[in-house]
Amino acid sequence: MNGIPNLHLWLLPILPLAGFLVNGLFGRRLPKALVTAVAILATAIPVIQVATIVARFGSLQLPYVEHVANWISAGSFHAGFTFQLDQLTLVMLCVITGVGFLIHVYSIGYMAHEDGYWRYFAYLNLFMFFMLTLVLANNFLMLFIGWEGVGLASYLLIGFYVLKTSAADAGKKAFIYNRIGDFGFLLAMFLMIQHFGSLSYSQVFPQIIAQPALQGGVLTAIGLLLLLGATGKSAQIPLYVWLPDAMEGPTPVSALIHAATMVTAGVYMVARAHVIFDRSAMALAFVAVIGTATAFFAATMAVAQNDIKRVLAYSTVSQLGYMFLGCGVAAYGAGVFHLVSHAFFKALLFLAAGAVIHSLSGEQDMRHMGGLRKKIPVTFWTMTAAVFAISGLPPLVGFASKDGVLYDAFIAPGGKILWFVGLAAAGLTSFYMFRLWYMTFFGEDRTGTSEILKEAKEHGHGHIHESPWVMLVPMAILAFLSIFGGALGWPSGLGGNEWITHFLDPVFNTASLSMNPHLIHDPAGAGSDSLQLILAIVSTLTALAGWFVAHLMYYARPELPAKLTQKFRAVHRTLYHKYWVDELYEGFIAAPLLFFSRFVLNFLVDRGMIDGAGFAAGGTAQGLGSLVARIQSGNIRSYAGWLALGATLVLVVTYFVFTGSFMLH
Amino acid sequence: MLNGSILSLITFLPLAGAVILALLPRRGRIIQWWALLVSLATFVATLHLPAHFVYGQSGFQFVINAPWITHPAIRYHLGVDGLSMWLVVLTGFLAPIGVLVSWKAIENRTKEFYFLFLIQQTAMLGVFVSLDLFLYYAFWELTLVPMAILIAMYGRNKGPQAAIKFFLYAFIPSALLLVAILWLYAKTGTFEFTHLQTAIAAGGLGPQALFWVALAFLVAFAVKVPVFPLHGWLADGLTQAPTAMSMVIAGKLGLYSLLRFNLGIFPVQSREFAPWMIALAVIGIIYGALVALVQRDMKRLVAYAILSQVSFVLLGIFCFSITGLDGAVYQIINEGVSGGALLVLLGILYERYGTFEISEYGGLSKRLPHMATLYIITTLSLIGLPILNGFVGEFLVLSGSFVGHHGWVVAATTGVILSASYMLWFIQRVFFGPPSTMVEEKPGIDVNFRELATLWPMILLMVVMGVASSYWIRGIEEGIRPLANAPVTQPMAQSHATSLPTQATLRKGRQ
Where are the domains of chain B? Predict the structure, then answer.
C-alpha cells in the first residue's frame, strides 16, 4: 500500500475528552482508583501515540493534514475540524503529552487527600483535550477552540477550591483578562476572513507568501491584534496581572497550565503565524519589545515576593517574555526551544515547590521555611537542578535556550538594547531564584513560626516529610531533562549542533522571511562562533553574579535584606506592591466603568429616561389599575372578558382604519 | 398527504388542546399531564418539517393557501422556508420545557395558566407560518394577550403594573403596524406576502409613503425585540412573568418579523434604516452588558443580558451579508435555547430559595453541585465559548458584519469581554465563596429528575449546535439568501482591490 498514512490525529484530543466525560459524569460515584485509572489512561495513550508518530515522522509528507468534519459553513466562509502535523506541532505534542502525563502522575500523590479528586482529574483531562486541539488545529478558528477552552479549564482549576473567595476571584480574573486578549484574536480573524477569505493555515499563509508586495499594512494590524491575544494568554504586558493570582489553584495545575503549556500558547501562536509577523517589521518589533519589557519587569517583581508560588509565577511571566523576545527577532526556533526548556525546568520548579508545600502541610510563605535541605533531600536536589537551569548556568537546559535567545537578539538589527535588558533580567532571575533556594532550604529552620504548620500539628499531622514516590519520580524525570536537555539545542558557538532549531527550520524558513529586508537573519554577518562564546561567558558571569548577591544576602549575611529594605523603602514598596498595576487597572478602568454603568446608565438613562418615558406613556397605567385588579380576581369570566376586550379593540381599530383608508381614495 | 396539512396541524394542535383542557377536571395533575402531552405532540409534529424539507428549492414549502374571507381578500395562507422552519421547531421544542418548568411553580389556577399557555403556543406558531399579512397580524396580536394576562396573574409583586406596561408597549406599536398593513392593502389590494413583495418591487408606490410604512413595521417589531431604547418593558416584564412565559417574551418573534417583513418586503427602506439600526444594535450590545453588570436582581440581570444578545442579532440582520444573516438567525435559535435554559435555571433556583436577590446567595456549588454544573454550561454557551452554540452565531454575526463596518464591529466585539464579566460575576456570587446564611439555613435540594429532563435536552442541543452547525445553517441560508446583498467579488480579488496596491492596480493607476 502506497497511500498516505493515516495517523488518526483526532484520537489525541478525543481520548482526554473521553476521560473528562467519564470522570465528569460519573466520577462522583466511581471509586478513586478507577477515577485515577481513567484519567491516567486518557493521557498515557496519547503519549504512546505521539511516540509512534515520532517513530514514523521521517516518512511523512509535511505538513500532514487530516480533515475530519465540517464545523461551520456559512456563505463563502468555511471552517472544519481539520488537524495538522508539522515539526512545530510535533515539538508541542511531545511537551504537552509528556509533561502533561508526568503531572497527572504527580497529582495522584498531591491530590490524594483532597475533596473533589474526581473533579480535579476531570478538569485536568479537559485541559489536555483543549491544549491538544490548540496545537493540532489547521485553522485559526479551531486553534481558537483550544485557546478559549484552555482558558475555561484554567478558570475551573484556579477556582478549584470553590469555597475560597480568593480562588473564585482569581479564576474570574484570569478568564476576563484572557477575554480581553481574545477580543484582539477575534478581530484578527475577522481581518483575515476579509482579506484572505479563510482562516485555514493552508489558505492564508500561501496567499501571503504568493504576494511579495504584501508588507505591513493589514498584516501589521493582524499581527498586532494577534499579539494582543497572545499577551492575554501568555501573561505579557499589559495583561499579565492574572497569572500571579492564578496561583490559587492546586500546585500541579500551576505546573502544567500556568507554566509548562497553556501560557506558552501565545508563543506557539506567534510562531505558528510567523508568516504574518515576518512581513511586518512593526508587529515583530512590538513582539520583541513587549517580550523584553515583560522579562525585565516581571523579574523585578519576583525579587520582592515572599510566597514561593508567586515568585515562580512572576518568574514564569518573565521567562515567557524571553520566548517573545526570541520570536520578536524572528528567531522563532530559539523562542520555541526556550518554550521547551522552560516546560522542563519550570514544571519541575512548581512540582518541587508543591512538594515543599505538601511537606509543610500547606505553608507557602518562604519566611516560614528555611533549613529544609536535610529534611526533604530528594525535593532539595531536584529543585536545585531546576534552580541552576533557570538561572542560566551551563551546561543546563536553561543556559542553552536562554543564551540562544539572547544571542539572536544581540545580532538582530537594533537588538543590542534588547540583549542588554534581557541580560539584566537574567541577572535578576538568578538572584531571585537563588533567594528562593536559600530561603527555603538553607539557613535556620523557621518552620516553627508557621501558623499553618502549627495548626496542622494540633490535628495530629504536620510533621515535615518527604513526598511519596508518585510525586518524586516525575520530579526526577524532569530534573534529568533540565540537566541534560541542553543537548537538544546546544549552541553551535559552543560546539553544539542546535538540533531543535534545525529541526524546526522547514516550518520557519519559508519564503516569507527572506522577503522582508529588515529580517534577513544576521544581515551583516554580525554573528560568529566567537561572538557567541563571548556572549555566553558574559551571561554566565551575570548568572553567577546574581547567585553571589543572593548568597550574600540570604545566606552569608541574613541581616542584610532587612537593612536594605529599610534603606530603599520606596523601591521595596514599589516592587512588593508590583508597581501598583492591579490597583491602577482597578482604579482607572474597572471602577470608573462600574460607576458609569451604575449611575449614568442604570440609574439616569434606564430608570430615569427609558423607564420614565414608559411611565409617561403609561400614566394611564395608574388609571387602568382598577381594571387590572379585576384580572387578578381569578374569575374565569374576567379573562374571557379581557380576551374579548383585546379582540374588540383590534376589530374597532381595524374598522376605523379600513373605512378611513378607503375614504382616502 | 401530510405535507399539505402539517402546518395547520402544528399551529392548531395547541389550541385544540387548550379547548379540551378547559373541559378537564381539576384533579391531581391531570391538567399538567395533558398540557405536556399536547405540547410534546406539537413538538413531534414540528419535526416533520426538517425531516421533509426539500433543500435547494426556493420559495415556501408545506404551503396551504385557501381563501378565507373574500372581501377584503384575506387568505388562509401558511408556509415555511429555511428562515421560519427552525423557529417553528424551536417553538415546539420549548413548549414541553415550558410545561415541565411550570409543573411545581404554578400551583394555583393551573387550568387558566395552561389554557393561556397553549393559546400562546398557537399564536407564536401562527406568527411564524402565516404568509397572509392579515392572518399574521391576528396571530401577532394574539401573542400579546395571554402574555399580558399571565404576567398580571403570576407577577411576583408588581405583576399588574408590569402587565400594563407590557401591554401598552406592545399594543401601541401594533396599532401602528395594523395601520401600515391596511394601508398596503388599500394600495395593492392584497395581504399576501409574496404579492406584496412583487407589488412593491414593481415600484408602483411612492418612496416617501413606503418609507413611513416601513418605519411603522420597524417600530412595531423593534419594541417586541426589543431594540435599544425601546426596551423599557423588558426588565419588568421578564421579572414578573412566570418562567415559561419569560422564555418566549423577547427575541424570536420580533426578530423573525423584522427579517421576514422589513427585509423581505422593504429591502430598499431597510437599507436606508440600516446605519441607524447598526448604531442602535451596537449601543444595545454594550449598554445591555454594562447595565447587566450592575444589577442586583438575577432576572433583571438576565433581562439586560438578553437586550445585549438580541442586539447582536440585530447587527447581523442590518449588515445584509449572508454570513451575518446566517449568524443572526442562528443566534435567534441560540437565544431561545441558551437564554431559555438560563431562565429555567433561575426558575428552579427561585423555587428553592424564593428570591432573585443575588446578594442573598453564595457558595451554592457545594450544596447543589449538579445545578452549578448546569448553570456553568449554560453560562459558557451564552458567553460564546467555542464548540457551544453561542460561539457559532456570535462569530458569524461579527465576522459577517465586519466588512464595511469596522468601527461598529470593533465596538460590538467588546461585548465578548463584557458578557464574560457579568455572567462570571453572577456565577461567582451565587455559587462560589463561602455559603451565605440563607444557603446555610434552607435545605439545599439538588436538581430532581423532572428538572434534569427539562434541562438536559437544552444542554445537549447547545453542544450539538456548537459542533454541527451546518445541519441548521444549510436551511437557514436558503431562507436568508434572498434578503442579503449580492455577495461581493471573490475575497482574493477583493483584497487585491481594496488594501493592496498590487501590480495590476498600480499599472491601472499609471494609465
Answer: 288-487
